[in-house]
Amino acid sequence: MSLGPYASFIVISYALVTVVVLILIIWIAVDYRRQRARLRELEASGVTRRSGRSAAEIR
Amino acid sequence: MPAATAAIIRDAMTLIDLANPTRFLTLTARILPWLAAATAILLLIGLYQSAMAPDDYQQGATVKIMFIHVPNAWLSMFVWGVMSLAALGTLVWRHPLADVAAKAAAPIGAAFTFLALVTGSLWGRPMWGTYWEWDARLTSVLILFLMYLGLIALWRAVEDPSRAARAAAILTLVGAINLPIIKFSVDWWNTLHQPASVMRMGGPSLDRAFLIPLLVMAIAFSLLFLTLHLAAMRNEILRRRVRSLQLMQASQRSA
Q: For residue A15, what is the nearest residue in chain B, using CA coordinates?
């Protein structure tokens, strides 16, 4: 597969899309862990939901 | 009860169930792994097909940029469309998850719009001889990107999510006026950007060798959006749960 005289433009485009999509995935995954950790901390400190269910429970 | 009526009631109950954030969390926990796997598989197929696609007789191998530029450009508009529906959900139906959906979609939409602008620019330099031209299509997409950033800033500026929701919903619906302007800018004005070649009257003008990888990548990126959106909505629901528990904790301490 030859990318021709403008290979650098093609490679940079694909690399940039990969990086931005990876940043989105990592950001969302880290945010999920952070929210779960905060909920566990709150539950450990004795705060409970009005429903009485576990705060960190998502199922 | 007739079967059709029972089916309608069952569908309505499913929608009501989804309006309950806890049920929504249960649903996302079940379907997210499958969606993520389907997205990854389709992206791999799309990338393979893009790599194997022949060179265009005019663009050469630079046509490969189109396989990532076009899906991002479609999604930049589609995500704002989703946010506009969610805005109606907030203002008209007061659906409990509407604002969550809109807020979670905004950063993902901004990322797709950024990628559409940058990959378009990287395609434009070798093909048009310039990275940027202030024509109607490019300028209206830049305005869309700035509107995404404005909305994200609005949500971040107001601490109470329910207060931010109405203002953000109104701004989203006003911004939706930009969507037909982007779509038809290439027909209404004399632009450097080429007219539509896939979604056009009389069918796509692309050869199958380019159309198939493009459609596979478009479906893969749409699935990527769906996966990321559901995951970001789940985060937003948990963030609001954290906030309400912190408020409860603060009121218990002051009592």
A: B119
The answer to whether the Cα torsion of B106, B171, B116, B200 is positive or negative is positive
A28 closest CB neighbour out of B60, B126, B231: B231
Domain regions of chain B by residue span: 34-233
Measured between alpha carbons, how far is B117 from A30 in angstroms, rounded to an integer? 27
State the number of CA atoms in the 13 A half-sphere of A14 facing the CB. Answer: 17
ipTM passes above 0.85: yes
Closest residue in B to A20 (Cα–Cα): B111
Q: B44 to chain A, minimum CA–CA distance in Å?
A: 12
Taking CA atoms, B75 is separated from B105, B137, B222, in Å, by 11, 15, 7
Give the pTM: 0.89
Please report where in the chains the tokens 């395609």 appear, as a residue.
B123
Q: What is the mean pLDDT of residues B54-62?
A: 87
